[in-house]
Specification:
31% helix; alpha/beta; TIM Barrel; Enolase-like, domain 1; globular
């Protein structure tokens, strides 16, 4: 079997409110939806959506690479299941995989996963749907009252794990805000704190002396603070460092690289937390299926960004819930 034709549709999804992406605020999430038809006339879809500040390539660069390098290999070329390798870029079906940009690799692997599921549905199905707790994303704003109202809405919705971005305000101000959350949680709340490698030396010293008062599951990319979790540190092809947890963004890592890390984590008894790069429901469902299929010790999902894309026809908001069920097959819809 092979792909016979391919179309590209540009889309721009509005955010719930403008978000800072890379070097500035963005009102829209730009992406391309790739649709490939196999020789039986069945369509397969993927999302090409590099995220500013996460992917090194822009959407225009990724799309140019797709047209110049990927399309010639995809169209009218036999796809051989016997070459399938879960941990090789392009699942072992793409020549010169070392050339692939990360967002392009993810889109290619989404198409190939859809094709493989079509060939053998049971082989690419979970034994049963998997239900996991979800975590909420909370950005601590300069206006603490606004952040507090947002927290209360998320708490009332049923969230008990909160990922908070820290290092953007004064450390004392952030600490006071987090203490307020913890008091409200009355022993039920847990924190994942993400510094995005942006914490100053003074802030690190502050949190070393004060952070022990808070129910912190881990510090993400905060050098000098423990327990530590790694996210950006996994983005290159080097061997991953040991940590309290690895944060996996399949849309940045690629699906195959994510499978490799999940298998390594299982062997080394390192928990893996599934995250994303402001992906739509199309990418989230593929990432979640990969995670459910290969994760030895599933953790609460980090898909809280889904609520920022309310107009996504693939239902990203359905993944931003206190409890999420991952369907047996990677391309089954999750309805809001």
């Amino acid at each position: 079997m092979s792909f016979r034709s391919l179309t590209v549709r540009h889309e721009e999804l509005p955010w719930s409110w403008p978000l800072r992406m890379g070097t500035g605020a963005a009102a829209l999430r730009a992406r391309c939806i790739m649709t490939a038809w196999d020789d039986q006339g069945v369509p397969h879809q993927a999302e090409l959506a590099p995220c500013p500040g996460v992917h090194p390539e822009s959407l225009s660069e990724a799309l140019a690479f797709w047209h110049q390098v990927v399309e010639p290999q995809l169209l009218d070329k036999p796809l051989l299941m016997e070459k399938w390798n879960w941990t090789e870029p392009g699942f072992g079906l793409f020549d010169q995989p070392e050339l692939l940009m990360s967002s392009v690799e993810t889109a290619l692997e989404q198409l190939l996963l859809s094709w493989a599921q079509r060939q053998n549905p049971e082989a690419y199905s979970l034994p049963a749907p998997m239900t996991l707790e979800g975590s909420a994303l909370l950005v601590i704003p300069p206006n603490g009252d606004a952040g507090w109202r947002e927290f209360l809405d998320l708490w009332d919705a049923g969230f008990r794990i909160f990922k908070c971005k820290v290092g953007r305000q004064a450390a004392a101000q952030e600490y006071e805000f987090l203490q307020r959350l913890v008091r409200h949680g009355a022993g039920q709340l847990q924190l994942r704190l993400d510094a995005n490698r942006g914490m100053s030396t003074d802030d690190v010293m502050f949190w070393k002396t004060r952070g022990g008062d808070l129910p912190i599951l881990y510090w993400e990319e905060a050098a000098g603070l423990e327990p530590v979790a790694f996210d950006e540190s996994l983005w290159d092809k080097a061997e991953p460092p040991p940590a309290q947890a690895w944060i996996l963004k399949p849309s940045r890592l690629g699906l195959a690289r994510s499978v490799y890390l999940l298998k390594r984590a299982a062997a080394e008894n390192i928990p893996c937390v599934l995250s994303n790069a402001f992906d739509s429901g199309l990418s989230l469902r593929c990432s979640a299926w990969i995670y459910a299929a290969f994760c030895a010790n599933p953790q609460p999902l980090g898909f809280g960004t889904g609520r920022f894309l309310p107009d996504d026809i693939w239902g990203s908001g359905a993944w931003a819930a206190p409890s999420v069920t991952i369907p047996r097959q990677p391309f089954a819809r999750v309805d809001a």
